[in-house]
Automatic annotation (TrEMBL):
PANTHER family: BLL4220 PROTEIN. The keyword Signal applies. Keywords: Signal. This is Lipoprotein. Residues 1-29 form the signal peptide. It comes from Amycolatopsis keratiniphila subsp. keratiniphila. GO terms for biological process: alkane catabolic process.
Length: 326
């Protein structure tokens, strides 16, 4: 069975006993701090992975906070062009030389990670690669020592992984109420639970509105535009992984120019509070994540009752205007 390949490091169990012993004496002990990444490799209390085995642990990495690291304390990464559902690695050849995969060799020791989140995926060459939260894990060849994270944000597709397999260092980002000054940037990415999607320069998911018409003036204005801020074409629009031929602009009712992809006006969603969320997918049966090809995402909608209009009515003060027909 797959679960037998993954074992919780003895050091973690020992640490748990220390905490229990402290609490049993009547004094509540504080949870131990996570060690810096640079200290993981040489920490005397951590049982190092034996040769031929793999270890995945949690450590601190500067401004990124907690990240996954290997047995030597090197930061581990995830790739947006992979997929988590189902798990799939798309980094091979020269890519795998720059981003060596974390292979499941022998027993994989786990420390500070929920065992239920750890798995493996078969690579194109037949080898098994470790996954956390469905995302394949990699090292970065340019990280020269433990604690470095030079791969963070490379190509807007590589990010240090956190203990749940998510992107480290992005949880604290707030959704922009309106577009920041400067140029817009659209990036082809892969959003958890959705698949292929376009995100902005901050990693926030972008949407299309099916009540709009392709290459026509957008119909989301007023309160609707507060809930669904339009992506404005201010200056040059940078593209990454999106065909330049799909990019366009359309004039809004207020005279501003809005970015279009495949003819569809592009929006953010104010209720996406963190990069990588897609809370707007399926809202009102009219709002959907937009894919890099400029089409509506066909990913399943979590709340199908809300999409079809059969959900229990919300209190008037909680029902945003855009969900009632914008």
């Amino acid at each position: 069975m797959l679960r037998k390949r993954f074992v919780v490091a003895a050091a973690s169990a020992a640490a748990g006993l220390v905490v229990l012993s402290a609490c049993s004496g009547g004094t509540e002990a504080a949870a131990p701090a996570v060690a810096p990444a640079a200290a993981v490799a040489g920490a005397g209390g951590n049982a190092p992975a034996a040769k031929g085995e793999t270890k995945v642990a949690v450590a601190e990495a500067g401004n990124l906070g907690q990240v996954l690291v290997d047995k030597d304390g090197f930061t581990l990464y995830r790739f947006d062009k992979d997929s988590a559902k189902p798990p799939k690695s798309n980094c091979d050849g020269d890519c795998a030389k720059a981003w060596p995969p974390v292979l499941a060799e022998g027993e994989v020791q786990i420390e500070g990670v929920d065992q239920a989140l750890v798995g493996e995926v078969t690579r194109a060459d037949g080898r098994k690669q470790v996954t956390v939260g469905g995302w394949a894990l990699y090292r970065y060849a340019k990280d020269a020592k433990a604690g470095e994270a030079k791969g963070q944000g490379v190509g807007s597709t590589w990010y240090a992984a956190n203990a749940k397999g998510g992107k480290a260092g992005q949880a604290a980002k707030e959704a922009p109420a309106e577009q920041k000054d400067g140029e817009a940037k659209l990036v082809a990415s892969n959003v958890d639970g959705i698949g292929p999607a376009i995100v902005d320069q901050d990693g926030f998911t972008l949407y299309m509105f099916t009540k709009d018409k392709k290459n026509k003036q957008p119909t989301c204005n007023g309160d609707c535009a507060k809930a669904w801020p339009p992506v404005l074409a201010e200056g040059d629009v940078q593209l990454e992984g999106i065909d330049q031929k799909l990019l366009g602009k359309v004039k809004r009712a207020d005279g501003t120019m809005q970015v279009t992809v495949g003819g569809w006006a592009v929006y953010r969603y104010a209720k996406d509070t963190e990069a990588g969320q897609a809370n707007g997918h399926g809202v009102g049966g009219t709002w959907f994540v937009i894919e890099p090809a400029g089409c509506k995402s066909t990913a399943p909608v979590k709340d199908k009752a809300a999409q079809s209009g059969n959900a229990a009515p919300k209190k008037e003060e909680d029902a945003p205007a855009q969900e009632s027909g914008y």
